[in-house]
Structures are given as structure tokens and as C-alpha cells.
Amino acid sequence: MRTIVRMTRIEHAKVLVSGAGIAGMALAWWLTEHGAEVTVVERAAAVRDGGYKVDIRGAALTVIERMGLLERVRAARTGVRTGSVVDATGKRVASMDADTFGGRVHDDAELLRGDLATMLHELTADRVTYRFGDAIAALGPEVVFESGHRAAYDLVVGADGLRSRTRALAFGDTGVHDLDHYIAICSVPNHLGLDREELTYVGAGRTALVYSTAGQADAKAMFLFADPGGERPRGTEAQRAFLTAAYAGEGWEVPKLLDAVAGAGDLYFDTISQVRLDGWSRGRVALVGDAAYCASPASGQGTSLALVGAYVLAGELAAAGLDEGPRRYEERMRPFVAANQHLGPANIKRMVLRSRRQVRMSMRMLAVVNRLPGKERLLAKVVEPINKAANAITL
Q1: How many domains, the chain?
Q2: Co-location of 322 and 381 in the same domain
Q3: Phi, psi (5° rounding) for residue 129?
Q4: Which InterPro entries match (predicted)?
Q5: Would you call 289 exposed, middle or buried from its count of C-beta atoms within 10 A (0-12, 13-18, 19+)?
Q6: Distance between CA 104 and CA 156 in Å, rounded?
Q7: Which candidate, 332, 319, 327, places its Cα nearest to that of 279?
Q8: Angle at 29 between CA 25 and CA 34, to 5 degrees
Q9: Interatomic CA distance for residues 244 and 265, integer angstroms
Q10: How far is CA 84 from the centre of its chain?
Q11: In 3D, which of 161, 141, 140 has the Cα closest to residue 43?
């Protein structure tokens, strides 16, 4: 039997990162900066481009700047100018600038997830080994891949998202806590002729929005809705049927958007959930990003958590080694994660209103605020918690 020597220093250590998402590729870059030999395994055939818009806020901007990507990120911003809430007739009840609408302040940047992923892949392509079209099948003295390939690593890091296979293998089927809501996102024709604008329609227990970004001919539709009960649908056709049933009878442009969903090839559908674990490492397996501490899309902080988590994990591994580094990473990140996870349950209650009465009251209040001078300053106070959470760590 071959003897496997375990290294304790990150320099020259062989590290396997599962998942070529934002957390995984950012971690791979920082680990190579500290001298590790990194392999990234990704089930998809290539880095996923396109996707929905994401925000980079607070401390995550510092990470991006230290990676030398700040100017590229700024250049790739979506350019969305305004956000409006509409009623069932399409009337704009309230409108505001897009940064206020999206909870952004100062230099916070909004860009498409795929654009950020492409930047990270380009940054790492010449220093990281990528295994696309493969995945971890088993963990042990050697990692066994679904392709049949086997290899030994000094550290394995799961950066494979909410439904992390790495987490399941190392920690068991645990950690995912549903917030009793669903999310669906896909590309749709821009039949409303939106020009860098976002429109949001709010019904009882279900919200629908559509937006266009700079340089995109089509639009993106997003659906956020309360769990109507029953089992979580599996497979694209079942998810489309589930979504259509959930929005049956809804007004505004919802029927047309649902028709477009039927032909969309990029539907993302899942529960709105958080990952809560007592620890983020076991032996020589660690977790980062959504796999460790998904805050849910409702938090607006998933991308920022991924970037900051990758930076902190790599830094603590470099400073304290493979045995002690994961513990120090968790100590540094726990308060930051807690602050950002707190946003999810609170935000979803504001994003999806439970009753028609709540919808009516909200529309009336927005209409009044929309007519007030300095409305942006008033509405900006609503987003203070997210700005505070985004800066709740010192790098």
C-alpha cells in the first residue's frame, strides 16, 4: 500500500477544490498566491457564463481590489439605472435609482455572475489545473472521482454550493435550512423593451420581477414565492409546472413571463435556504461559500460571502497551516457570516408579502413615499442593515 505523506504547510501542498463557482475559483487564486498546487473539479463542462446579476459590497470589494480585478468589475457593471414597483395594471407605483433599489452604497458593484466567473477563470487558468465534466464520488485516503480517476490531496475544499456533494460526503445530509420560499430565474425575451431598468410586481405570497442590463438583448425574469406545500419538484419540467401553478391567476406581465419560462434553456430553480453548520471542517476537508454558510439569495450577500470566505480561508491556511488554519478561518468568519445570514429571513418578509392586505398597504405607503422630496434618503435607511453586514469584518 502506498504511503501518503500529509503536509501541514500550504506551500507546495496539493489542494483539491470542488466547484468552479465564485468561491471555488477565488479560493484557488489565493491558494496559488500562497504557493499551493491547486486542482479545481467542476461537474459542468465549462465555467458557467451568463446568469443573474449579483452584488459585490463592502469587504468583498477589498478582496476584489487585492486580486487586481476592481477596474474590470467596475467596467462590467450592469448599468441598470432605475428600479420600479408596478401594480397589476403595469402602473409604476414607485421608482428610484437602481442603487437605492438594490441596496447598494458608495462603490458597491452590480454585475452578472457569469461575467465575474469569467474574470476569475481567466485569472486562474494558467496557474490552476481544471477538471471539467467530473466530480468527487468518494473521500478517503485518496479522492475517487466519478470518472474513475483517483488522486491524493493534502486538503479538499468543498465550494460546490447549497447542495454541496462534498458537504454531504464529509458531514452527512445536514445543514440546509429552508426559509419556506422558492426562487426561479431565467432569461426571457425583452418584450417590454426595458432599457437598463428593473420592474417588480408584488402579489400575495408571490413576487415577480424582470430586468435588462447593459449589453444584453434579452431580459432576466425572477420569481420569489412562498412555499405552496408539497414535495420540492425535481427536474426542469416539474419545476416549470410547479412555478406555473404557484402563479396561476396572477396579473401584470406574469402570464407572458411564464410562457417565456417554458422555452428558457437556463432555468435556475431552488428553495430559498441557508446552510447552518456547527463547524466548517472535518479532518482535511473544509467548506467555503454557500457550501459552508449559504445566506440565501434573499440576503443579497452570497457573492460577497464567497469572496471574503475564500480570502480568509486561504490567508489562515497560509498563516497557521493545514491543521490549525481551518479553525482560525472559522473564528474569523463566524461573526461576519452571522451578520449576513441574519439578513435573509428579514429580507424575504419584505420581498414576498403574505397577504393581499399587506400588498395594498405596501403599495399605498410606496406611493406616498414616492411623492416625497428626498425619497432616496428615506429609502436608503432601509438598506443600512445590509451595508453594515457587508462591512462586518476587517481584512
Answers
A1: 2
A2: no
A3: -90, 120
A4: FAD-bd (IPR002938), FAD/NAD-bd_sf (IPR036188), FAD_aromatic-hydroxylase (IPR051704)
A5: buried
A6: 34
A7: 327
A8: 145
A9: 16
A10: 23
A11: 161
382 shares a domain with 265 = yes
Phi-psi label, residue 196: left if phi above 0, alpha if psi -120 to 50, beta otherwise: left
User: What residues are paired with 177 via a beta bridge?
Assistant: 274
Assigned domain for 100 exists = no
With a cut of 70, list the residues of the chain below it in pLDDT.
1-7, 98, 100-103, 105-106, 374-376, 378-380, 382
State whether 140 and 256 are in the same domain: no
Predicted pLDDT at 102: 66
C-alpha to C-alpha distance for 144 and 146, rounded to whole angstroms: 7
Specify whether 264 is located in the same domain as 291: no
**Domain that residue 141 falls in:** 14-79+107-176+275-346
β-bridge mates for residue 188, sequence order: 219
- By CB neighbour count within 10 A (0-12 exposed, 13-18 middle, 19+ buried), where does 389 fall? buried
pTM passes above 0.90 = yes
Q: At 190, which CATH number?
A: 3.30.9.30
Whether 4 is in a domain gets the answer no
Q: Both 131 and 22 in a single domain?
A: yes
Residue 307 in domain = yes
- Which grid cell sits at 166? 462534498
- What CATH number corresponds to the domain at position 295? 3.50.50.60
